[in-house]
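Q: What would this chain look like folded?
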Amino acid sequence: MEDFLIFNTLEHGRYPDSYKDNYHCHILCRSGEMHFSAMGKDFSAGPGDLVIWQMTTAVGKVKYSDGFDADFLLISNPFLHLYNPEQVWATKGYVYIKTHPVFHLEADGWEVVEADFTQFRRRICSKDVLFHEEKVGRLFQLLLMDMWGIYSREMEKMDVDETSARIFMKFLLLVQRNCREQREVAWYADKLFVTPKYLSAICQGVTGKPGSYWIEYYTVHEILLLLNDPGLTLTEIADRMNFPAPPMLTRYLKRAIGQTPSAYRKGKI
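A: My prediction, written as structure tokens:
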């Protein structure tokens, strides 16, 4: 799998939903419309909108209008972590984008982001032998900082210091890796050498949500990924997610997103 790709829906006949499980998708909408759902909410995007699908966001019910024209940049998770330019703003951006996957760009913002996409296309397609990845990585850093600048009015309302940002991001990485087996705040606090109360206070301060929210968020993401595989039975999924029995998995998902596993699967057909 390549670390970075860029396509246009009309020119290449490809669409971002084919890549959403393996890449962070940055979608620059030129004309037409797209519709999708993320964690129980419906979103629409059209001309002038920038859409970002993080890999940890369960995106579904994706539809495009006829002639939907958009450029989309695909970034792998390792590449994102390698070229992340700044921890505090990365945390703010991560949290803000998770709840605001569609952002309308004013004229000056559109000009900046479109220029970044143009540079990506030129660099990615050139296939420079010397420092190719490093050059693309620097462009990605520039795109991130440009996006943070555009989002800054809303993001600056979030109170995040460097220590809190570092602990919160370590917490998220632990949750991503272990939520199939561990779903208690105390377990993660122990791994981070802090108290559960302190960890919960950090999560609340950084995101406005308690630590239990983020554990449930990633747990639901993992469940939905498994439900997307029609070859897995509910019993097999319950085993993989460390639920004692399928009914407990069903109750968990019903409480979290308002759907049972069977209802979710029917909606995917």
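The chain has twelve helices and eight strands.
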